[in-house]
Amino acid sequence: MHEPRKGLPGLAAALPQVLREVPGLRVLVAAPGDAGEVREGMTPEVARACEFLGAVSDDDKARLLRSVDAY
């Protein structure tokens, strides 16, 4: 979750506006790390929209990517 190339802080900063435009948006975050620590830096609205999955296998990652509307 702290991998700079993945851009989670930038996404979290943009999510309040995105959530106004897309109510009910659900964001899946698949990465190892401390979800509680990441959640603490988010607004409650953004934290509620994020589902932290932890580390996922390559097979699970492929299934997740096939299931989403945007990546």
Structural features, described:
- The chain is an alpha+beta fold.
- 51% of the residues lie in helices and 13% in strands.
- The chain contains four helices and two strands.
- The chain has helices at residues 8-21, 35-40, 44-49, 58-67, and strands at 27-30, 50-54.
- A two-stranded parallel sheet has the order 1-2.
- The model has no long low-confidence stretch (mean pLDDT 92).
In short:
With 71 residues, this protein is an alpha+beta fold.
**CA-atom Rg in angstroms:** 12 Å
The amount of beta strand, in percent, is 5-15%
Strand order of the main beta sheet, please?
A: 1-2
Shape estimate:
globular
Task: Provide the low-confidence segments as ranges.
Answer: none
Count of DSSP E strands? 2
**Count of individual helical segments:** 4
Task: Give me the secondary-structure topology.
Elements: H1 8-21, E1 27-30, H2 35-40, H3 44-49, E2 50-54, H4 58-67
Parallel strand pairs: 1-2
For the structure shown, list the relevant keywords.
alpha+beta, 13% strand, globular, 71 residues
